[in-house]
Write a structure and sequence with these properties.
Order of helices and strands: EEEHEEHEEEHEEHHE
CATH topology of the largest domain: Alpha-Beta Plaits
Low-confidence stretches: 1-11
CATH architecture of the largest domain: 2-Layer Sandwich
Largest sheet: 9 strands, mixed
Radius of gyration: 20 Å
Distance between the termini: 17 Å
């Protein structure tokens, strides 16, 4: 438990995790930024309105402009216990319909939504054809022949490497490009082709760059050996073009179960 001391009183902070989902089409990503509307900004504004004081939430990560989240966690501190059901109702009444607070969970002391996450999962959704109702949530590839078996062979190669600098945005300020990729697989159901990937962490633009490069494997533009050489080069210029943002979904963030307090 964190204590903030002054001469007159001791105030303790209670930490809560917010579970939320959003359709990212109308937003410049998760992270609050000047001159652009972000999901974090709207969440902060809603909480601040409810409690009458400035409140800032801290997310498990940040999604780029146009990227969606089926599950994302953020943490927030309050000085007293809150009525979770009432706060969920009030905050959802203030948020736009494409952002939803699904749950609020009380946690143990000093846990962090970003640093205590043990894995993150994404899906990249491709519609093999044209569908006007999926324009904002899929990459639509019409009349493009893909060798999905080869794409899955290349996806398996990802599990044998740890350094993914070749798939990272070039201006990223990170200490390491190492990621533990635990799952990478394409699944085709009717016309919907979905890439599932899970890792302990992801670099900026990593999933979209991987998808764009795997599509080049599927079209025969590059071979499996080329794919290995791209990873080993650690050079973003050698990888494929990033897939469009609208097909990417953050689908799950996992934490140790022990951090949550069940009352």
């Amino acid at each position: 438990m964190m204590y903030i001391c002054n001469r007159t009183k001791i105030t303790f902070q209670l930490r809560y995790f917010i579970e939320l989902s959003y359709k990212g089409t109308n937003y410049h990503g998760w992270q609050e930024q000047p001159n652009s509307v972000s999901v974090q900004e709207l969440i902060n504004n809603a909480f601040s309105t409810i409690f009458g004081t400035s409140i800032n939430v801290v997310g498990a990560g940040r999604t780029d402009t146009g990227v969606h989240a089926e599950q994302l966690y953020a943490h927030v501190d309050f000085s007293t216990e809150i009525s979770i059901r009432d706060v969920i109702y009030k905050i959802n009444s203030l948020l736009p319909h494409d952002i939803v607070v699904e749950n609020i969970l009380k946690t143990t002391e000093d846990v962090h939504a970003r640093f205590d996450a043990i894995s993150r999962s994404y899906e990249y959704r491709i519609f093999l054809g044209r569908n006007p109702f999926l324009i904002e949530t899929t990459w639509q590839l019409n009349n493009k022949k893909l060798n999905i078996d080869k794409m899955n062979e290349a996806a398996d190669i990802l599990l044998t490497y740890t350094n993914f600098k070749c798939f990272s945005r070039t201006n990223s300020n990170v200490k390491t490009y190492n990621c533990d990729v635990r799952k990478a697989k394409w699944v085709l159901t009717n016309k919907m082709l979905i890439f599932h990937i899970t890792a302990d962490r992801f670099l900026r633009n990593m999933v979209r760059a991987i998808v764009g490069t795997l599509i080049e494997v599927g079209t025969g533009k590059i071979s499996l050996e080329d794919f290995k050489q791209i990873i080993e080069s650690k050079d973003r210029c050698n990888a494929g073009t990033s897939a469009p943002a609208q097909g990417l979904f953050l689908t799950q963030v996992d934490y140790p179960k022990t951090i949550f307090i069940h009352e």
